[in-house]
Amino acid sequence: MLSSYLRQRHGERVQKVSLHCGFTCPNRDGTLGTEGCTFCDGRALEPAGYRDGRSVAEQLEHGIAYVARRYGVRRFIAYFQDYSATYGPVDRLEALYCSALGRPEVVGMAISTRPDCLQPDALDLLERIAGQTDVWLEVGLQIADDRLLESLRRGHSVACFVEAVEALHRRRLKVCAHVIVGLPGATREAERRTGRLLASLGVWGVKVHAFHVLHDTEMARRYLSGGLELPNNRTMPSVRRTSLPWSLRRHSA
Fold first, then answer.
1. How many other CB atoms are found less than 10 A from the CB of residue 61?
2. pLDDT tens digits, residue range 88-103?
3. Is 80 helix (H, G, I), strand (E, B) or coil?
4. What is the pLDDT of residues 56-90, one digit of tens each?
5. Which helix (DSSP H) or strand (DSSP E) does residue 205 occupy?
6. Which residues are 176's β-sheet partners?
7. Would you list the domain boundaries of the chain?
């Protein structure tokens, strides 16, 4: 568990503080496409501190104060969560990362990204930073099935993910893989294959998301038109029924 790792490493509880830095990704800026992945609405990842135009330093100040009050903690991880947070000029990346790490109570950094957004100069920068503080990369795979990745409009292959993980391992950088269970069209065997792949790669961590539908996405349009059946207790018997088990979810306001 991440919480246990952080407590053991830093001697006390540590909490993430999410940051928004206006990143994009090649699936949205026209490099690969403009519509993004079929399940993605990046507005759902925006922390409240960003919406009034706060800088990274101001977001951190706001986020740290909120998290400290809520959880009673004194140590924090700066979480670059929006879109692909290694995608951009390396001098901009360095300025953003260093501004977050300038506070003594920030003891590390987590960076969300895609496997095709890890250029050598960005890896050089991350390797240097990791020599001074805790750093891990949260890299999206979703599922180890090229056919499904294409249907999700991911724009990369399983092989691309494997190459990215191997490149990060060569730099001794920690990798947390993101996967989604219950994707439309995914078989149990595809999900098992995903687990076996991650085990064989020796990733540092895995973040498992249950598939759900966000407003203003391609998945939402399919659902509202009747072209998408959501997982339920019959198709995913391990999921306990609640009042809204797999509902259409609106991005946070």
1. 15
2. 999 999 999 999 998 8
3. strand
4. 888 999 999 999 999 999 999 999 988 899 999 99
5. strand 205-210
6. 138, 205
7. 2-249
